[in-house]
Amino acid sequence: MLSKYKKHFTVILVLLIFIIMVSPGNQAGAYVSSPKNIRIGLYYASGSKDTTLEMVTMSAVGGIEIGTNQYGNYTKLIETPYIVNAIVDGGVSGYHIRIGEATADATKIYADLNEYLSQGLEVFPICLENNLWQIWEGCYLSKDDAERAISSKIIPKAGAGNYTVAFPSTDRIIIKYSNGLAAVASESGVSFLMIKSTYSGDPKTINVNGDRYRTSLELRKFPGSNITVINELTMGDYLDGVVPLEIGTTETPFEALKAQSVAARTYAVANHKHEDLGFDLCNSTCCQVYGGYEVENLATNNAIKATEGMVVTYGGALAQLYYFASSGGATANSENVWSKAVPYLQSVEDPYEITKYWSYSFSADEMTRHMANMGRNIGTVTGIQAVSTSESGRVTELKITGTTGIAIFNRVSTRSAFPTYLPSQVFTVGGDTGYTVKRAGNVLESINISGALVQTASGTSTVSANGPVYVKDGNGNLIALQANSSTSGGFTITGAGSGHGVGMSQRGAMGMASAGFTYEDILKHYFTGVEVEKANFY
Question: How many CA atoms within 13 Å lie on the side-chain side of 301?
Answer without folding.
Answer: 8
